[in-house]
Amino acid sequence: MSYLETTRDVYREAALTPDVGLCCTTNPVWELPGLKIPQIMQEMNYGCGSTVHPRDLGNNPKILYVGVGGGMELLQFAYFSRQKKGVIGVDSVSEMLDASRKNFTEAEKQNPWFKSEFIDLRKGDALSLPLEDESIDVAAQNCLFNIFKAEDLKKALEEMYRVLKPHGRLVMSDPVCEQGMNDELRNDERLRALCLSGSLPLNEYVKALTDVGFGTIEIRARKPYRILDPKNYPTSELIYIEAVEVAAIKDPMPEDGPCVFTGKAAIYYGENDYFDDKKGHILLKNQPLAICDKTAGDLAKLGRDDIYISESTFHYDGGGCC
Ligand SMILES: C[S@@+](CC[C@H](N)C(=O)[O-])C[C@H]1O[C@@H](n2cnc3c(N)ncnc32)[C@H](O)[C@@H]1O
After folding, report:
1. Which atom of ligand 1 is nearest to the CA of 47?
2. Over the chain (322 residues), what is each successive 10-residue block's mean pLDDT?
3. Buried (b) or exposed (e) across 93-130, using 16+ Cβ within 10 A?
4. Between the CA atoms of 197, 200, 205 and 207, what dihedral angle is there, to the nearest 10 degrees?
5. What spacing in Å lies between the alpha carbon of 123 and ligand 1's midpoint?
6. Is 79 within 8 Å of 53 (Cβ atoms)?
7. Most buried residue, 49, 151, 155, 319, by CB count within 10 Å?
8. Model-level pTM?
């Protein structure tokens, strides 16, 4: 049996018998006007961070969500989209699709604005999406892609890239881990399926995205997620896992490489009203400008004593250079 089949088995079971502790989200349940998340959806929240960001959802986007779980984030996307088949949900486990369908019926009872027809559920695989090329504005996945081994991760990202329209965005949340993991952890199919032993260091995760062509990457959040300890897992050292929220935008790849925003800012505090680097970046005096890591490197190389460049905050929320 391949690890992909083990993964399907784990989530077949999690669809039939909801398991509150299966994944450990640190996000509070959303409280937006008129939005009620049914209890069963909360119990079936098998994600880590959030992929629903209102600023991605202007201009009536066509939304794709891969790996539906109990349907909570699809309901949250539908809150903003509110149209028939506005959100497409794809999952390879029939029992999970059935469970989420049932949960949407419950959501209808608790949310007068919501209709199940807002969600278009499709059986399909992340590695071969049942969708046309360039048909989606916003694609999302939460806590699925970290399970995939390198070749499958590449395929899954290529599929997302294929179905996105130019300048469309892929919004993701996954565990990441900066420590090396031993082979026993890496090869444990169940721990991998449970989103515990497949995670990559953040720079490798970002590289996987830029390697398939995404020209702009935004690291939006980075938070504590889980500990693998020697008493409970096959490891001799404590392993610390974080959850990240990342958006990858299908912008053309710049000639000098991708723009990766990790939450850095530059502040000019010199003699003039502004500093112009003649490469399209104007720093107004004493006003922080969000910059990508590439611009941060270029500004640092100037060696000036009137520009401050902050560390990465891993909390980028729009604007700035590029
Ligand atoms: C960790 S759960 C995350 C569920 C949901 N995104 C959430 O945040 O609660 C992974 C989901 O991906 C589905 N899944 C597993 N393998 C898949 C595949 N190869 N293609 C599509 N979906 C898959 C599972 O059935 C499950 O719904």
Report:
1. 8
2. 94 89 70 93 92 94 98 97 97 98 98 98 98 98 98 98 98 97 96 96 98 98 96 98 97 96 98 95 96 97 97 92 73
3. beebbebbeebbebbbeebeebebebbebeebbbbebe
4. -140
5. 11
6. no
7. 49
8. 0.96
